[in-house]
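User:
Care to share a sequence and structure tokens?

Assistant:
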Amino acid sequence: MADLRNYLIVTATYWVFTVTDGALRMLILLFLHEQGYSPLSLAAVFILYEFCGVITNLIGGFVGSRFGLDKTLSCGLALQILACAALALEADALTVVFVMIVQAMSGVAKDLTKMSAKSYVKLVIPEGDESRLMRWVSLLTGSKNTLKGVGFFVGGLMLTALGFQAACLAMAGALAIALVSSVVLLPGAAGRASDKPKLTSVISRDPRINWLAAARLVLFASRDVWFAVALPVFLASSLGWSFPAVGAFLACWVVGYGIVQASAPRFTVRRTGQETLPPDAVHLTGWTASLLIPLLGIATALGSGIFPEIALIGGLALFGILFAANSAVHSFLIVSYADSNSVAMNVGFYYSANAVGRLLGTLLSGAVFQAFGLGLPGLVACMLAAACFVAISTASCIRLSSAEGRIIGQKPVK
């Protein structure tokens, strides 16, 4: 029961962080867009945020294995408090360079917190209980994404109601409460490896983890290439939506995505006779390939000028359902593949690939949208780029299936 209690504390802390992280991203995006920054400049603001996630997941997994997940969790919360406070103090004189630096700090904070929370799942589920592991991972990941969507809405609402500076200070206060609570309530050294892992151990030698990481990289690039910059700017500039409306739409999409993700164990399972088993790499391949349907459908509808708002809302709703299933299976498989003695490093390595995908998608979201035209042509180009990434992710899943089959045939002993 002590492990369960600690996990619930970590999860609640992660929820607080997630709401503020989503709100902060929406605040910065909409505030700088209001100041007249171009889509490419907006993408540049988030480059260091995503790049630091690559390094943080690798190093953070190593630190968590050496010193405990409670340490990485506390560091993540403290850095996010500093980021919010710095933005509040400089609200009247923000520059792209300054916001990039602060977002780099926020990126480190986000991935330290995420790696700590997701690694904790492995510590509280008995070895071999794959069905229960799938449920717990899906619940954590789905609830996180739901709350991130809430954060998008909160960010757009706070920008209108409180202003940029007061909103940043309010978020810093909420994070400070979460930090103090976690420090007081959590024991030390949870998740620390029994031996002293070397820094070179952060690179996985398990082919399943490597191919899963490759599939994850391009999967998240396929989402962020239209989601990070192109879509919110298109809604605000081309369709004339207000900031709260943009935040509310993105919030509803992410909340719905999170709800589907949390319920994924109900419809992503494998059925063999009377037995129900968690999904494997073969099922992940099918779920990934299915993402081509809404992406190509949206691109075709927008390119033909068929009611852009209806095409976007309907197409993105379908994409969200399918993407949520993909993400849930991904999150389950990495925790399942991870070695219990080095779970932080395995999860950290995997999420560093996730951060590379987000970095690539974010950069291309601004670049492609601006290069092809700040309107329908640019958004169509982003959707087609997303379809290319999905095709590459599907190919990686096929290689993952082969690697998984070889590992199962060898019957490794963990």
